[in-house]
Amino acid sequence: MSESLQPGSALSAHGLTAGYTPGAPVLRNVSLEVAAGELLAIVGPNGSGKSTLLRLLGGAMRPWEGTVELQGRALHSIERRELARQIATVAQENTVAFRFTVLEIVLMGRAPHLGAFRFESRRDLAIAQAALDRFDLLPLAHRHIEELSGGERKRVFLARALTQEPNVMLLDEPTAFLDLKHVVGIFTRFRELASSRGLAVVATLHDLNAAAAYADRVMLLKAGEVVGYGSPAEVLTESNLRSVYETEIYVGTNPTTGQLTILPSLTPRP
Amino acid sequence: MTTSQPPESIAGAHLTAARLFSVLILLAIGLLIAILIAATFGSVHISLIAAFAEPASADHAIFFAARLPRLVMAVVVGAVLATVGAALQALVRNPLAEGGILGISGGGALGAIVALVFLARLGWSESVVPIVAFGAALLSTVAVYRLAEVDGQLEPFTLLLVGVIFNAFWGAAIMVVNSVVNFYYAHTILFWLMGSLEAPTWHEVALVAALGLAGFLALMYHARDMNLLSLGDEAAEELGVDVNFLRRLIFVATSVMVGAVVSVSGIIAFVGLIVPHMLRLAFGSDHRLLIPASLIGGAAFMVIADLIARVAISPAEIPVGAITALFGGPFFVYMLRREGGKPIGL
To answer: In angstroms, what CA-CA distances link B256 with B171, B215, B317?
Structure first.
């Protein structure tokens, strides 16, 4: 993985405009850049185009205008299996037809590295085991995926993505359905991965405090347009958030930790 | 990372080459036992030793003239139908899918009947029958798949309903042909609707076996991709699978296989449902195992079903398609109650 520690942008997008029905773009003129070892959070209300942006970055969808580049190469010029060795995506919802074990699902991450008839080698197994371990899933390796809770299942798919050994990870709401302990655990792990392996992470997030705490950079979207793009302190301001979420929001600093803290100004019951 | 030993805590939680081969050998032994039992029993009990040792014996005549052709047919038809079932289930991500239930066998049967009745009269060779059956099966497969697709998603109940409609439609079309043609053909057609392993020529059996094997090898080559397809189209694509290509490959391979089988045995439903389901429960869902295991397990299942068809009301015989449906109907209901109520998989 050491070759990915080089500086420069791992993934970049320039002037992306895209949508599902002609004439009605859900994203307009979005540009971004993620360097190796960096965590970019994409935030914004429901329907602001977060998931669409992630699909464009992963190549699941082609933009109407603009380009996506992986280490300087146009995304659409990269062969499918090679792309799968470079970029791993974890969708917001993951369903599995049929009863596979947790280990089987995680090992599917090795598929882009293996030929048609090749069985997983010891090395493949070791990679899968390390990924399971990282997400506290080793005791569940034998279990069937449908027996797990939503949060456990989410971690299985994160471990699968890690098993792909990608340089870029695209995560759609990685901490939805997770309890607080695992929310913290998952962000801590991705921070570790970013710095130790030079992994570039792009995650859509609902949780603004998580974005403030863990992201190097934040992109704030409203109705498909970029409202702010920069460091959490630059982007997550009261005026930006008030205009995007159309509600009163308090932004302050946690007096004990010095951490940027965002709270909706809830009206107390009379 | 130094791992000379397989990690202990995860051992046995996935498919290894050793496990694949031991399961396949186990199933092959099971098939062999089923064949020996089915060869021995029937309306007359014969001695296999005599059949081989004494060429002049009645045992010899019965075995080679009556039992062996039936056994070969049962092996080929069962193997192909179960493999097709497993592949179709991977394609539509639904364990309730099967060639007979989805109306694909019905389409193939109509094609075969039309070819037999009309093309044969025009002096065409009978070898066009499996080809026309293949075309009709392919048309049915693609149509069922596309019609069940809502906003790019395959809705499980829509899929089954479309299958029901196709079955009813093809059945009606076959009855219309039945009414139009003369008695000889009508008899054949009824046989077709029930499904039968009455021996056709060796030439035909060999053709079906060859087409079945070709389809099997094509599916086997993409067995791992079928695992990834279980995660959904987009996830499979993100893991490097050319989903459009894989889908077309499964369409064509299963249609060739169904077309070939239907043109010699008629519609035998539920084999492709029961066999892969049992195998999945016993050995897991990895298609690298499930596809070849279905090939062998399907053959064994059909040999036993045919034995029951021959001995249940001996000396009379029940059509083997009736036997599989008698087992398969309740089995389908059981699976529907178990699997159908929730969205596919999770």
So the answer is: 20, 7, 30
Question: For residue B152, is it within any domain?
Answer: yes
Nearest residue in B to A147, CA atom: B346
B12 contacts A142? CB cut-off 8 A? yes
- Angle ∠(B13,B15,B17) on CA atoms, nearest 5: 140
Distance, in angstroms, between B240 CA and closest chain A CA?
4
Which range marks the domain in which residue B310 is found? 59-335
Domain with CATH 3.40.50.300 in chain A: 2-71+167-264
Residues of A within 8 A of B235 (CB-CB) are 89, 91, 94
The distance of B2 to chain A (nearest Cα, Å) reads 9
Please give the residue that has the higher pLDDT: either B168 or B44. Answer: B168
**Lowest-pLDDT range, A194-198, B74-78, B131-135, B177-181?**
B177-181
Contact A95, B346 (CB under 8 A): yes
Nearest to A81 among B1, B3, B240 (CB): B240
Over residues B125-180, the pLDDT tens digits come to: 777 888 888 999 999 999 998 898 887 777 778 888 898 899 899 989 988 887 88
User: What pLDDT digit, counting tens, does each position of A134-165 carry?
Assistant: 999 999 999 999 899 888 999 999 999 999 99
Class of domain A2-71+167-264: alpha beta
pLDDT at B344: 41
Residue B287 maps to which CATH number?
1.10.3470.10
Q: What is the ipTM of this complex?
A: 0.90
What local confidence, expressed as pLDDT, does residue B299 receive? Answer: 98
Q: How far apart are CA A110 and CA A107, in angstroms?
A: 5
Q: Is B15 within a domain? A: no
Percent of chain B topping pLDDT 90: 45
Residue window 117-136, chain B: list those with CB within 8 Å of chain A.
none
Q: Which of B6, B242, B286 sits opposite A122 (nearest CB)?
A: B6
Residue B21 lies in a domain: no
Q: A91 vs B13: CB contact, 8 Å cut-off?
A: no
Measured in angstroms, the CA of A270 and the nearest CA of chain B are apart by 43
Tell me if B328 sits within 8 A of B269, measured CB to CB.
yes
Q: Which two tokens stand for residue A74?
A: 């146009």
Cβ–Cβ pairs < 8 A, chains A and B? 129
Q: Residue A261 in 3-state DSSP?
A: strand
Flag whether B140 is in a domain. Answer: yes
CA distances from B147 to B156, B244, B252, B272 (A): 12, 17, 18, 22
Are the beta carbons of A129 and B10 separated by less than 8 Å? yes
Q: Do A100 and B227 touch (CB under 8 A)?
A: yes
Number of domains in chain B: 1
Which two tokens mark B75?
Answer: 């092996």
